[in-house]
Amino acid sequence: MDQLNIILPDDWHLHLRDNESLATTVPAATRGFGRGIVMPNLNPPVTTVAAAKAYYDRIISYRPEGSDWEPLMVLYLTDNTTTDEIRAAAESGFIHGCKYYPAGATTNSDSGVTDLANIYDVLETMQEVGMTLQLHGEVTDCDIDIFDREAVFIERYLKQMVKSFPNLRVILEHITTQQAVDFVIAGNENIAATITPQHLLYNRNHMLVGGIRPHLFCLPVLKRDIHQKALIEAAVSGNKKFFLGTDSAPHTKESKESCCGCAGCFSHPAAVELYAEVFDQAGALDNFEAFASINGADFYGLPYNKTKITLNKESWTIPESLPFGDSKIVPLAAGNNIKWKLEN
Ligand code: NCD
Ligand code: ZN
Questions:
Q1: What is the maximum alpha-carbon separation in the chain?
Q2: Which of these, 14, 46, 93, 101, has the minimum number of CB atoms within 10 Å of its CB?
Q3: Ligand 1 mean position to 5 CA, how many Å?
């Protein structure tokens, strides 16, 4: 197959940052996507409907002329989120989920929830009003090994949570393990997961053998190859519970190439193509449209995009870096030759 024609995909998990960063991140997010679920981990985080509306307006002001790309906003849950705020979010029409960050789990998560028990009333209200919960599914206990944090979160918290709230719509974001795949498959129809390009393309050997590659460091951290294989199998299977979420997360070159480098991979410059390569290598291009353009929209109860995109089998090289304000940003798979290319 030399050409792919599919419904315009959506990105169900991404980071845009704020203010002047939006000049780079918003146009990048529109490339090959109709909509994007915009994570709320700003500093300070987006915790209210009013803050989400103001952020939405700032994002739209950077949308390229003629683009219909739509930011889908998310509230950041804290220990102090009120059930009134959840009800207001559900009525807003532009907020499509609430994000649970365990406090301290990842970039800008310090205001996250310190104990799931603190938000049980909020989860009950979300279940009642049909608001989706997006989960960063990792424990933060210092005695739990970083490679085990997702699996332990599932065992300790998630299994009980989905029993307590069987009608709550839950997305386990950026899954990284066989345990997460198994949990999502075994769950009811209200449980789904997003999968990033980096977790499909790489395992921890790529990040650590022969030297540390800071641009592959993201959270949850890359796991061993058996987990990578389980993720590929889930993504290409056509199962409706798995869909595209890049977790594209821009950080400057200096903040990644540092003695304490930031977590996050900026994949938007070639995101659709990187996923296409995974499906191609697995001999599963027939299921690419379901993963990229259908399953997520179905889970969120949104219509499919009306336009289509074309990908051609055409070799090109992902740029080594891109300008980012006064600095630079190194995209995922920078300098790599890639076989699929999005037609303009
Ligand atoms: C994300 C970021 O930089 O905002 N980083 C990451 O490693 N994925 C936060 C997140 O999604 O965990
Ligand atoms: Zn993220």
A1: 52
A2: 93
A3: 31
User: CA-CA distance, 90 to 97, in Å (whole number)?
Assistant: 8
Cβ(246) – ligand 1 distance below 6 Å: no
Residue to mutate, 15, 42, 171, ligand 1, most ligand atoms under 8 Å from C-beta: 15
**CA 307, 313, 319, 323: dihedral to nearest 10 degrees?**
-10
Q: Both tokens of residue 6?
A: 């599919």
Q: Which atom of ligand 1 is nearest to the CA of 101?
A: 12
| Nearest ligand (C-alpha, residue 13) | 2
Contact 136, 99 (CB under 8 A): yes
Mean pLDDT of 251-269: 98
The SS3 of residue 296 is: helix
Residue 325: count of CB within 10 angstroms of its CB: 12
Mean pLDDT value across the chain: 97
What tens digit of pLDDT does each residue of 165-185 get? 999 999 999 999 999 999 999
User: Is the CB of 219 inside a 6 Å radius of any atom of ligand 1?
Assistant: yes
Which is the closest atom of ligand 1 to the Cα of 251? 3
DSSP string for residues in 119-170:
GHHHHHHHHHHTPPEEE------TTS-GGGHHHHHIIIIIHHHHHH-TTS-E
Average pLDDT rounded to a whole number, residues 227-237 = 98
Confidence check: pLDDT of 1 > 90: no
The verdict on whether 247 is a catalytic residue reads yes
pLDDT digits (tens, 9 = 90+) for 70-84: 999 999 999 999 999
